[in-house]
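Deliverable D2.4 — example input (structure tokens):
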């Protein structure tokens, strides 16, 4: 598969035994990293699951990324989950080290990623 068609994920969920791996933490909260500013038509298809209480990767930056990709004609899907933080943790006091992912949102996030991959032709239909 050409590199430009490989799916881009901000969080690899623990589907099929994969490790949860955060990518890109923003500090200070209003800072935007280069990957947001460089988002555009060459950005691979992206599926993002995000907690609306995330203090490590603010939702505003993720929305800006999504909007830039879509505006340039790319594909980016954002699923936001209420009341959870980084990596869909329920532990809002310590989002950096002590993850407690909400089981329902985690399962839905994995399902959203799998659906996205099927729709984009990266994995076969069930």
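Example output (designed residues):
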């Amino acid at each position: 598969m050409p590199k430009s068609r490989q799916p881009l994920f901000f969080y690899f969920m623990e589907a099929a035994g994969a490790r949860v791996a955060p990518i890109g933490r923003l500090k200070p909260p209003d800072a935007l990293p280069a990957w947001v500013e460089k988002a555009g038509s060459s950005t691979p298809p992206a599926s993002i699951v995000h907690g609306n209480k995330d203090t490590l990767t603010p939702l505003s930056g993720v929305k800006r990324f999504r909007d830039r990709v879509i505006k340039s004609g790319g594909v980016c899907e954002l699923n936001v989950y209420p009341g959870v933080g980084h990596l869909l943790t329920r532990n809002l006091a310590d989002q950096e080290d002590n993850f407690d992912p909400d089981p329902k949102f985690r399962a839905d996030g994995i399902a959203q990623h799998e659906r996205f991959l099927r729709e984009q032709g990266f994995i076969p239909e069930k």
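Residues 103-119 form the longest helix (17 residues).
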